[in-house]
Amino acid sequence: MAIEDRREKEKAWRRELILKSAIEIYTEEGYHATTMEKIAQRAELSRATLYLYFRTKDEIFVHAIVSLSEFFHELLKDIYDRRFVLKDTILEELWKSFQKFYFHDPKTINATLYFHQSQMIMNLPEELRLMLDRTGSKNYEMLWKIMEFGINEGYFVECNPKTLAEVVWTSFLGIIHLENSKKAMGRKNHLDITWALAYTILSKGIIKKE
Amino acid sequence: MAIEDRREKEKAWRRELILKSAIEIYTEEGYHATTMEKIAQRAELSRATLYLYFRTKDEIFVHAIVSLSEFFHELLKDIYDRRFVLKDTILEELWKSFQKFYFHDPKTINATLYFHQSQMIMNLPEELRLMLDRTGSKNYEMLWKIMEFGINEGYFVECNPKTLAEVVWTSFLGIIHLENSKKAMGRKNHLDITWALAYTILSKGIIKKE
Amino acid sequence: MAIEDRREKEKAWRRELILKSAIEIYTEEGYHATTMEKIAQRAELSRATLYLYFRTKDEIFVHAIVSLSEFFHELLKDIYDRRFVLKDTILEELWKSFQKFYFHDPKTINATLYFHQSQMIMNLPEELRLMLDRTGSKNYEMLWKIMEFGINEGYFVECNPKTLAEVVWTSFLGIIHLENSKKAMGRKNHLDITWALAYTILSKGIIKKE
Amino acid sequence: MAIEDRREKEKAWRRELILKSAIEIYTEEGYHATTMEKIAQRAELSRATLYLYFRTKDEIFVHAIVSLSEFFHELLKDIYDRRFVLKDTILEELWKSFQKFYFHDPKTINATLYFHQSQMIMNLPEELRLMLDRTGSKNYEMLWKIMEFGINEGYFVECNPKTLAEVVWTSFLGIIHLENSKKAMGRKNHLDITWALAYTILSKGIIKKE
DNA sequence: AATGAATGAGGTTTCATTCAT
DNA sequence: TATGAATGAAACCTCATTCAT
Question: What is the model's pTM?
Answer without folding.
Answer: 0.88
